[in-house]
Design a protein that fits this description.
The complex is a heterodimer of chains A (about 500) and B (about 220).
Chain A (H helix, E strand, L loop, with lengths): L1 H22 L5 H63 L11 H10 L7 E7 L2 E4 L13 H9 L8 E4 L4 E10 L5 E10 H53 L13 H46 L6 H30 L9 E4 H13 L5 E6 L4 E4 L1 H17 L6 E9 L2 E8 L29 H11 L3 E7 L3 E9 L6
Parallel strand pairs in A: 7-9
Antiparallel strand pairs in A: 1-2, 1-5, 3-4, 4-5, 6-8, 9-10, 10-12, 11-12
Chain B lengths: L1 E6 L3 H13 L2 E6 L2 H10 L4 E5 L7 H10 L6 E5 L4 H9 L4 E4 L4 H14 L10 E3 L2 E4 L4 E4 L2 E4 L2 H12 L4 E3 H9 L5 H15 L4 E4 L3 E4 L2
Parallel strand pairs in B: 1-2, 1-3, 3-4, 4-5
Antiparallel strand pairs in B: 6-7, 7-8, 8-9, 10-12, 11-12
Helix pairs in contact in B: 2-3, 6-7, 6-8
Classes of the chains: A alpha+beta (about 500), B alpha/beta (about 220).
Chain lengths: ~500, ~220
């Protein structure tokens, strides 16, 4: 479960990289396929390695425990048998309650009560020769191993001690109980023994089976994991394909979002990025479209005039030249303005510096007065420092002044002013010109929107002012009514943040 | 004379178009708004309409739709700075007869106007080929053939040649010629320049100067 849970996180990580590759650069699909496959193979590799370690560790531990329990079992078993033999020797024949007088009879009775198995048996012996064995045909043939019988007789002791001996036949664990007569002569030995080697090899066979089962389980795990990881990675394949499709065809397509996991979140993120991209492209296309539209009209004027030009008519040549130069000048202005607007989104568009509002206002006012014969007044002169791009702000302010002059009568009042407060700088121009109807207020800052087509200009002045104010993270306010006049105010934050 | 209604708000373009079309024997009435354009178009006094799409008061498409809604089949040539296929289709679907993207060629606009006016039927005397003496003048191609040799003429050269040749054997006064070709009698010296040019093409004897009056085409 632990590995399953961490797997998607690892995948999500890879996916972020993968999408970057597909979306931004145009790396070949083979590279990303390779990466994806390697993620799948890597996850599978980790999974199998981890499972293999788990199987191996549990196997080794179980094997060790099993081995210990074999030894304990053997020791316990042998001790028990030896004790019941001792009991027999001390208490005598269980049916008659008479003690055995004969060592042979005791050995016979002792061996008879042992239940033998192919790994364990008993033997009554003397001088390396077996006297009695249990009557089970499937018994451990101790009686045939003379070397063992001799070894079992070699250490007579009156205590129950589990010993081990290795003969040519097997590795035995055994307990021997010697029978002595009154003169300390060894009459015979009762020995119970287990073939530890056989028991261990039984265990080994079991564990060989365990290993086989473990290997099969690993293969099965691998197969299931391969399919599962593949299925988990499938949304990424989809993401990759969609992202590639989108970059190749149109930007309006979006990645379908399935579920609520981190892959769905990733798809959301990619979709949001696509939204921004599409928006940026649309804005750019609109600007280009507008620019094309606005440049075509002067081009049409120029072309018609050139086509109709009579080279032999010197007067017409002169007037056409004058007209076309005028058109060219207008187109140049238009191109300059469009370039400013196109650049307005870039960070380097405004270069912040500390400005003194009072001095800035004085400079603007004296420049404004030169723009026309109006009754100029300085409304208010703000005092203090603020941050902004002096050149751009002057350009915007002068644009507002030029508009005020353009849309008002000679001699009419035009006021310029500035103030500082609430962390904001306000720069304004107020005229008593023709004013703007309320329903046009929002549209005047649209590109190429002109209230009156008879007035010269492409309709880029206010959009530029708006672009400069918003590049300063401020906004443009407008109060205006037809016949009363207009008040345009640039509202800027005092401290321009480092955009 | 073809009567053309020009609905275009760009004054500098209107000035040059009116001037150019007049030299091609087309009588132009120009207005700058869709409302005025629609009013005049509905009056039925025009043979062809040249309509700009980007008008200040309403879209040219709207004017066209409203015009077609009145049942008018006045040939309309759309003039626009929007050149996408979508715009072309939109224009044609709303009943435009032709579509000219800016910046258009004046010669092409003229050819298209001619095509529309011919479609309405009346064989215009302004487009008939004139043969006089050794000279053949084709108004459609604006070419002059002198002894089988082709000469291209500018608008005003053509107009002057056309005026003189269509009055072959008669005297055309200087005032008439100036008024017809330049629209005013004030450009007196220009006339001499153009006569000199035509003589160099047609031969000095083709145009006779009637002292104190004007010129006469002899062929």
């Amino acid at each position: 479960m632990g590995t399953r849970r961490t797997a998607p996180r690892a995948i999500a990580w890879e996916a972020t990289e993968g999408v970057d590759i597909a979306g931004v650069s145009t790396l070949s699909s083979r590279t990303s396929a390779l990466r994806r496959t390697s993620v799948r193979a890597r996850v599978l590799g980790y999974l199998i390695a981890l499972s293999a370690v788990a199987v191996a560790v549990s196997g080794v531990v179980a094997y060790g425990l099993e081995l210990r329990s074999i030894d304990q079992d053997i020791a316990g078993d042998l001790t028990l048998r030896a004790q019941s033999f001792l009991k027999l020797a001390q208490e005598g024949d269980p049916s008659t309650r008479l003690p055995y007088t004969d060592a042979r009879a005791l050995l016979y009775a002792g061996v008879s009560q042992v239940i033998a198995s192919p790994t364990e048996s008993a033997v009554g012996h003397a001088n390396g020769v077996a006297l009695f064995v249990p009557k089970y045909p499937e018994r451990l043939p101790l009686e045939e191993d003379k070397a063992f019988l001799l070894a079992a007789e070699a250490h007579p002791t009156d205590q129950i001690v589990v010993r081990s001996v290795r003969t040519e036949e097997a590795l035995y664990h055994y307990v021997s109980v010697p029978i002595f007569d009154g003169n300390n002569n060894l009459l015979g030995t009762f020995t119970v023994a287990a073939d530890r080697g056989a028991l261990v090899s039984n265990l080994n066979r079991t564990f060989a089976l365990y290993l086989l089962a473990g290997a099969v389980a690993l293969v099965l795990t691998g197969a299931v994991a391969w399919v599962t990881v593949g299925r988990l990675l499938k949304p990424i394949t989809l993401l990759d394909e969609t992202a590639r499709d989108i970059s190749e065809s149109d930007l309006s397509r979006r990645i379908p979002i399935v579920g609520h996991d981190d892959l769905a979140r990733l798809s959301h993120t990619v979709n949001a990025m696509l939204d921004r991209l599409e928006n940026a492209f649309a804005t750019q296309r609109q600007l280009l479209d507008d620019a094309g539209h606005e440049l075509r009209t002067p081009l049409a004027v120029m072309r018609t005039n050139l086509e109709l030009l009579e080279p032999r008519d010197s007067e017409q040549v002169a007037s056409t030249q004058y007209l076309l130069l005028d058109e060219v000048a207008m187109m140049s202005r238009l191109v300059d303005d469009l370039v400013i607007l196109a650049k307005a989104d870039r960070p380097e568009f405004v270069q912040h510096e500390v400005l003194d509002l009072g001095e800035f206002t004085d400079a603007a006012f004296s420049r404004a007065r030169a723009l026309g014969d109006r009754e100029w007044t300085l409304d208010s002169r703000g005092e203090g420092k603020f941050e902004g791009d002096g050149q751009r702000l002057t350009q915007a302010w002068m644009q507002l002044v030029a508009n005020a002059v353009k849309f008002s009568e000679p001699g009419s009042p035009v006021a310029v002013g500035s103030s500082l407060g609430d962390g904001r700088v306000r720069l304004w121009v107020k005229d008593a010109g023709r004013g703007i109807p309320p329903d046009e207020h929002a549209r005047v800052i649209e590109r190429f929107h002109r209230l009156n087509p008879d007035v010269e200009g492409a309709g880029l002045g206010l959009p530029i002012v708006a672009a400069i104010t918003s590049a300063h993270e401020g906004h443009l306010e407008l109060e205006s009514a037809p016949g009363v006049g207009s008040l345009f105010t640039m509202v800027l934050p005092m401290r321009g943040s480092a955009r | 004379m073809t009567r053309l209604l020009l609905v275009e708000d760009e004054e500098r373009l209107v000035t040059s178009l009116v001037d150019g079309l007049r030299t091609a024997q087309i009588d132009v009435t120009a207005v700058g708004t869709g409302r005025e354009g629609l009013e005049l178009a509905k009056s039925g006094d025009f043979d062809v309409m040249v309509l700009d799409i980007g008008l200040p008061d309403q879209e040219g498409f709207t004017v066209l739709r409203k015009l077609r809604a009145t049942g008018s089949d006045l040939p309309v040539i759309i003039l626009t700075a929007r050149t996408s296929a979508e715009d072309v289709v939109r224009g044609l679907e709303r009943g435009a007869d032709d579509y000219m993207p800016k910046p258009f060629s004046f010669a092409e606009l003229l050819a298209r106007i001619r095509l529309r006016e011919r479609r309405i039927g009346a064989a215009d005397p302004a487009t008939a080929v004139i043969e006089a003496g050794r000279c053949v003048l084709d108004p459609m191609t604006r070419t002059l053939e002198v002894n089988g040799e082709q000469v291209s003429l500018s608008n005003r050269e053509f107009q002057l040649a056309h005026l003189l040749m269509s009055h072959a054997g008669q005297t055309v006064t200087r005032a008439e010629a100036l008024e017809h070709v330049w629209g005013s009698a004030s450009r007196d010296n220009v006339l001499d320049v153009y006569i000199r040019y035509l003589r160099s093409r047609m031969g000095a004897s083709a145009i006779k100067t009637i002292r104190g009056e004007g010129y006469q085409f002899l062929g």
